[in-house]
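ingest -> validate -> predict -> emit
validate: passed (alphabet ok, no gaps, 348 aa)
predict: started
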Amino acid sequence: MRLLVTGGAGFIGSTIVEAALAQGHEVRVLDSLRSDVHGGEPAIPDGVEFVRGDVRDASLVADALAGIDVVCHQAAKVGLGVDFSDAPDYVSSNEFGTAVLLAAMAQAGIRRFVQASSMVVYGEGAYVGAKGLTRPAPRRVEDLDAGRFDPLDDDGGALEPALIGEDAPLDPRNVYAISKLSQEHLATSWARSTGGVAASLRYHNVYGPGMPQNTPYAGVASLFRSSLERGEAPRVFEDGRQRRDFVHSRDIAAANLAAIDWTADNEGARAFNVGSGVVHTIGEIAQQLSEHSGGPAPVVTGQYRLGDVRHITASSERLKTELGWAPQMTFEAGMREFATAPLRAAVT
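emit:
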């Protein structure tokens, strides 16, 4: 099979490329090597055809699709962002870039598509309260300022976090989240229009060797590791009890390859959560990384970022049942590896 991986020189993309090569696939990579992600020239594996360019360049994308059977779309601007001035870049990179790619695929007659989506499309996760399953409204600034971080129900009652499934209502609460949901809608429209098959993989918190370091757009695991690399204590926002699902990059790669296989025998567009299925807190990951690296203990700051959600954890049963995927890396083993694994060069 001939596979195009957009963003294939990045953290997750390169892990997918390695896994695809191990399965005997022919791989072409399209990557712009944008400077806010790549701190220098990445190593491209032997046997991979590399095309340097932006997924928003229609002519270049058309050339990159020549002879391709399946597209695995990882190219995106990621993270919450620094402030709202990042909005045009998110919309252009993620929404417009995906539209250009899908339009070129329609023209080329390529009908199999897998893309990286994100847990952020849900907003807050699922909760159970006195009235059963509920989705709380965004947290209020006055509550956050007072250190009241957990969402409450409409009557001010306590809520218990629960695993969220793909059929839950979607509620993107920042520009990045909106752009990821737009990518999913574009894939659905493309599938309906062309008869193609699209799988959108809603990644939960991904970590692993080769994460980017020292960038405000990186995930929390990378930010903690970058602090420890500098000899500084990881700074944990809120009270550190935010619940997340941390999933290893090699498990993410395996999910992508399973989704690629799925597109061969199915139709339409479908979303899949990709998580480990095991809940941990932000504070736990900081503590694990500090201990395994021999670095300073984490500092819980009480600070917060508007747009962050309190708890979001996945049910990946659909992916396990329909695609036969299961995570292989335990949290403990993954943290032990990641604590001393090499990171990508710092961006400038």
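The first helix runs from residue 11 to 22.
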